[in-house]
Amino acid sequence: MLKIAWNHRYAHPLPAGHRFPMLKYELLPEQLLYEGTITPDNLFSPEPLDEETILLTHDPDYWHRLSHLQLTPSEIRKTGFPLSAGLVQREIIIMNGTVQAALFALEFGIGMNIAGGTHHAFTNRGEGFCLLNDIAIAANYLLKHTAISCILVIDLDVHQGNGTAQIFADEPRVFTFSMHSGHNYPFHKEKSDLDVPLPDGLEDAGYLKILQSHLPQLFDQVQPDFVFYQSGVDILETDKLGRLKVSMAGCKERDRLVLETCRRHKLPVTASMGGGYSEKIADIVEAHANTFRLAQYLYF
């Protein structure tokens, strides 16, 4: 069964001006349920993640200051959100959503999180709407508590997964692959194990050709036994913060290529949703919904 992490705290209310990015966390599960792609049985509600697991990835001083709302004004500005106890609570629930989705992936082949993909969070700081790094936390959890010994991170958000790259820079058991807009945020890029910067204005054919040229080599080279997929939909032409021109159909084909490759190699995969900032919320929800539709179709 496809298991999907979702908690009502994912749509934690923010002050005016910050609410739009949260709307998709309410609308996406509603859409999937309405159209019959999933039933309530597919959804599970994660609890807050324990501190011990958070500290497998994040610096103790940073976590202490974050959890006690003691970040500096500069640190808070870089996250893009006003800091509050409710926001921190939301973040640690999302973190556990990806951890639990990874455990479900070991059982069912795939597990998903309605939220997550917080790849701009470093060991000791947050930025870009990310306070903690769910993919890194879940990867470190698997390495410590399961037989998983080699992990491939496929990050196809339009922005480089800079935090994930930094966290795993000296961890040979995790291979980070980021295919992103080369001239977009973050303007200082970290070094992933493989970075593929893309030119502005790239359309479907060029985007998919580049992805297809790298996926087989990645799986052959890395020989992973687990995959994390950051499936941000800010690659869309309609996205306010992207610089690419990928269509809705092209974004769906991207997801199909990744998920089919994982399934063909019989590798468990966990998908986190990542970014999406199109002017119309319907475009964001539809693009994300395609990822879940494909997972249900391909695996179940």
Automatic annotation (TrEMBL):
Q: Please give the SUPFAM superfamilies that the UniProt record associates with this protein.
A: Arginase/deacetylase
Matching Pfam families, A to Z?
Hist_deacetyl
**Keyword terms of this UniProt record:** Hydrolase
Q: Which residues form the Histone deacetylase domain?
A: 24-290
**InterPro entries documented for this protein:** HDAC_classIV, HDACs, His_deacetylse_dom, His_deacetylse_dom_sf, Ureohydrolase_dom_sf
Gene Ontology biological process terms, A to Z: epigenetic regulation of gene expression
Gene Ontology molecular function terms on file? histone deacetylase activity; hydrolase activity
Q: Could you say which protein family the record assigns here?
A: Belongs to the histone deacetylase family.
PANTHER family hit by this protein: HISTONE DEACETYLASE 12, HISTONE DEACETYLASE HDAC1-RELATED
In its UniProt entry, what is this protein called? Histone deacetylase
